Amino acid sequence: VLDIDSTSSHYIIVVVEMTWEQRMNAAVRAVVRMGIYVGAKVYFIREGYQGMVDGGEENIKEASWESVSSMLQMGGTVIGSARCKEFRSHEGRLKAAHNLVQRGITNLCVIGGDGSLTGANLFREEWSGLLEELVQQGLIDEDAVQKYSALHIVGMVGSIDNDFCGTDMTIGTDSALHRIIEVVDAIMTTAQSHQRTFVLEVMGRHCGYLALVSALACGADWVLIPEMPPEDGWEEKMCQKLSANRAGMKRLNIIIVAEGAIDCNNKPITTDHVKDLVVRCLGFDTRVTILGHVQRGGTPSAFDRILASRMGVEAVIALLETTANTPACVVSLCGNQAVRLPLMECVQMTQEVQKAMDEKKFEEAVKLRGRSFENNLKTYKLLAHRKLESELPHSNFNIAVLNVGAPAAGMNAAVRSAVRVGISEGHKMFAVNDGFEGFYKGQIKEIKWADVGGWTGQGGSLLGTKRTLPAKHVEKIAEQMRAHNINALLVIGGFEAYLGLMELLEARGKYDEFCVPMVMVPATVSNNVPGSDLSIGADTALNAITDTCDRIKQSASGTKRRVFIIETMGGYCGYLASVGGLAAGADAAYIYEEPFDIRDLQSNVEHLTEKMKGAIQRGLVLRNENSNENYTTDFIYQLYSEEGRGVFDCRKNVLGHMQQGGAPSPFDRNFGTKISAKAMLWLTKKMNETFRQGRVFANTEDTCCLLGMRRRALVFQPVVQLKDETDFVHRIPKEQWWLKLRPLMKILAKYKTSYDVSDSGQLEHVVRNIQPKESDPSGAM
């Protein structure tokens, strides 16, 4: 637990020096509030390094708690950002050092890209020399040199390009993907109506991440990125594919071009060149759309707000724990974990990527980008390019895929991925409508490559889904398995899918038909499936909650002080209320996992009353639908209304099923696509391993698994082993990682609480991406 008393002498400063990225506010807010929480004095530096060089009260200003209120939902950065040529010179850095020493500042939190962070590290390395120069010039004395002898730096990466090595995601990338996908979804409707081809250019400088992931998320026909230059003759291949898709009754084509796209001779590929090519060779009606700075603007996504808040708090803790010998570090995201990495190791590897591309070592460049980028690229290759019948392996295996439980955005992307990877592996794919209910009723049909075209952006479940469990119908399901010669099963769904898989596993003793490899992919807005930190659909639901909370809070703008009580879904799982509360800037979130009583409610009301007497105008309280059977949403609304009388008034909203609807977010599309592809490769491997005497026979525990995200990796776990981790009465895991984020939400809402830092404090090293030694195709996923 963080020791607050020992940190009161620290000074922390926030610097933003990334001209282009415009989603820094959540990080700035987190650093300011965490810094104040631990007793530090926090300063803003306005206009990035320019403000540090210029100095003055307007440029270097002490931050207060209220100065970062109501900024979570704002695009841009409230403290400004600018390029600074002067800071690149020794004289400029000397001025900056003098301005910092005058205020006793020796801790910098720098939010920016690799250029900004490299500049910060150079500043740190020169610090002692700069102080000596200031003494010689008579601007500071020897006591100041002793007192401020070391400069500590922690970086956070803010860039929509996601081109910084060492982190899976940079702040701003997810929001940029939201803007891109919103535009692509809108364009697809007009393209379909007019049978057009659209060529879209997306940003990313020399990194193709945005283009690649948006191509995955919208099912683009072709993507051109700098890390994967097309081979000679690519023009003909692309036109052949576009023509084949049109012949297959597809009414539109989408081609995505990264702004840094090049051919194998390092010559730029422009959108106009691609358009002219399509018009000349195919005669298709073709349009070009350059998204430009639309990608940098707008409201930050829920993912970016949570990422920035977590990184900001981690950065403050890292600064408090630094010593004179600690190298400058950068706070990064690895899987689902916040980690610290040496800043210059990350910068050097980022520079190695460009060097590899300049030398035409493109495979090496892809590996240096990291496992996340490489996995995206491999998944795209699996899904985008259909093999000819003569090229397909003939496995003679049949695989059934079904959705079980409530619908979740991203299910269709997962089904599309499964079908296309299965067909690429030579299998025959069968779709089961309406879950286990449709299974025993015989609602099964073969599904082809073209049948799942355009599914990635569709919300809900196009296969249909029901909550029916299989236990009462195992005999009829076994008959259907036998009739269609099903050799493996992919189940996509929530807690019902988990229970259903367990029931099928138990039925193996009675029915040999269930002795086949079976795997479940978690998909539920509640995010309550044991064995996985994340589920398909949860990110879309979080964005729906966050967007609605933003609008609700804005509805009180300019009126008297008001508190909103908002009820979220989730069953007994408080994930949506807690993480949604963190993303929306809630003052409290009531959940089942953290019991509360009338004294807690009273304390929260008093806390809000105190805040409302100051500069705060609006309050936000979230309640999970099953958090307490007696303290209902109505009860909490009436309590707050009565106790806040004369200070604030109350309104309540039940968000309901709007959390399950809508188009899936880019994260859910990508996550569903990748996790389902990995599941299919695993099924292929298991079928080959268990094929004996002309049939598949799999009766061991490790052939019935759940594929889930665990901390930093996707892991296959036998469902039998997950029983002990499950609270079956309340349909939640016994241990949930996100509970560690709740103190963070409370700290940022000005509550005094303890904060567990057991996962913090370890400075790791950048891991170079090395191909797995074994030839397991799923190992690289």
State the share of residues found in helices, binned by percent: 25-40%
Query: Percent of residues in beta strands?
Result: 15-25%
**Class of secondary structure makeup:** alpha/beta
Round the Cα radius of gyration to an integer and report it. Answer: 27 Å
Number of contiguous helices: 23
* Low confidence ranges: 3-9, 770-781
Main beta sheet strand tally, sense and closure? 8 strands, mixed
Q: What would the average pLDDT be, to the nearest integer?
A: 89
- The first-to-last residue Cα distance is 36 Å
Which shape, going by the Cα principal axes? globular
DSSP summary, beta strand count: 27
Binding site for ATP: 83-84, 113-116
Enzyme class: transferase
Function: Catalyzes the phosphorylation of D-fructose 6-phosphate to fructose 1,6-bisphosphate by ATP, the first committing step of glycolysis.
GO cellular component, one term: membrane
Can you describe what's shown?
The protein is an alpha/beta fold and 781 residues long. It is 39% helix and 17% strand. It contains 23 helices and 27 strands. The strands form 6 sheets. Strands 12, 13, 14, 15, 16, 17, 24 and 25 form an 8-stranded mixed sheet that branches. A hairpin with a 2-residue loop joins strand 24 (704-710) and strand 25. Helix 2 (48-54) crosses helix 3, helix 4 (114-136) packs across helix 11 (343-358) and helix 19 packs parallel to helix 23 (742-748). The longest helix has 24 residues, at 666-689. The protein is globular. Residues 3-9 and 770-781 have low confidence and may be disordered. Beta-D-fructose 2,6-bisphosphate binds at residues 467, 524-528, 562, 569-571, 625, 651, 657-660, 731. It is found in: Cytoplasm. Mg(2+) binds at residue 114.
